[in-house]
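Hi R.,

Here's the input for the pyridoxal-5'-phosphate complex you asked about:
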Amino acid sequence: MSVFAYVNGVLRAEDVSVESLAEAYGTPLYVYSRRAMRDRYAALTAALKAVDPLIAYSVKANANRSVLSEFFALGSGADIVSGGELFRALRAGADPAKIVFAGVGKTREEIVAAIEKDILFFTVESEPETERISACASAAGKTARIAFRVNPDVDPQTHRYITTGKKENKFGLDRARVAQACRQAVRLPHVSVAGLHMHIGSQILSPEPFAEALDCVVGLCEEIRGICPDLRWLDIGGGIGIPYRPEEKPFDLAAYAGLLVPRLKRSGLSVVLEPGRFLVGPAGILVCRVQYVKENAFRKFVVADAGMNDLIRPSLYEAFQSVVPVRETEGRMFGDLVGPICESGDFLARDRELPEVREGDLLAVRDAGAYGFSMASNYNSRPRAAEIMVDGDRAFPIRTRETLEDLVRGEC
Ligand SMILES: *Cc1c(COP(=O)(O)O)cnc(C)c1O
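And here is the predicted structure with pyridoxal-5'-phosphate in place:
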């Protein structure tokens, strides 16, 4: 059963009424279920136990300290993409030996900070980056571990903005260049080639693209083993999707494991996995309150107090997110759920059947635990929402609502 379900007609997060949370903490409000996070972590670990992977939770999906420390307590490491995420991960108790650092644009400052903490490895996306990491490590008197990110040129059948492993994307090195990049790296005294990495995109709903990409990378492992004596890790990235639409099926973890495990075993390397969305997406909702219902000659608009600054996925990726009433109702209406932002692209749901609502009613946008708050902004000078963690029948604020003063802090 979902951790968000109706009891006596009112939506609950685990055993807590969402209505009471909205009353107590105001709206818009992010509400997360601790149990959902734990259950999803356990399901993923169990599916892949034959290769006993290091799970490196992808911090950018949801970077709240309490969410991070929850996963770190379960044994997770961290997949980071900036110095800011390094800071957050360490502050939340991450073991540096389980941190992997990705991204095409790492600055010297970011690299130095990660070398000082002795992270597990950098995933390297270009030849100049190898040289920069070596120079930074040399200055620190250390040797940095690196894993080349391979661009396997696989189409993961997802939105074009979140495809990262096709040849036209900015990410990784073309397969044909990796061996040469390894030869260059082993000549440098302060880097050691510790692995290979792939991350082909996000919100991928079928296991086949992962297997196709892995075939490319495992083949490459065999090719470079002779060049790289320190090769030890195979990092297969994140990207496991979740069903946002009612007709979408949950990702088939058993089929994923069935396809990947034999290939991973064949590599003989230790496996790293970087899930983000899969672990936290379904564990969160965004609760908002209806301000107005308005109609023009063409359509009906439900205007809520949450908008694209709180949850940008619908606007940015034309993403579908399910919208449900906090107080169950049979009534339906057709139209758009929009926010208060001064942009026509500010919508949470468009051209859809929605619950029939009136001013003051509460709505919940489901599957908002990943790339929700972490992509929120202050656009239109809107303080960012509060975040609540529910655990059984208890609820804890894990981030307070921003104040007006927060909006101008740092201005001088
Ligand atoms: C964003 C990202 C992830 C996580 O992706 P999900 O789709 O949330 O699982 C993993 N690895 C890298 C390198 C990323 O950039």
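One thing worth noting: Residues 58, 60-61, 79, 81, 102, 199, 202, 237-240, 274-278, 370 surround pyridoxal-5'-phosphate (CB under 6 Å).

Cheers,
M.
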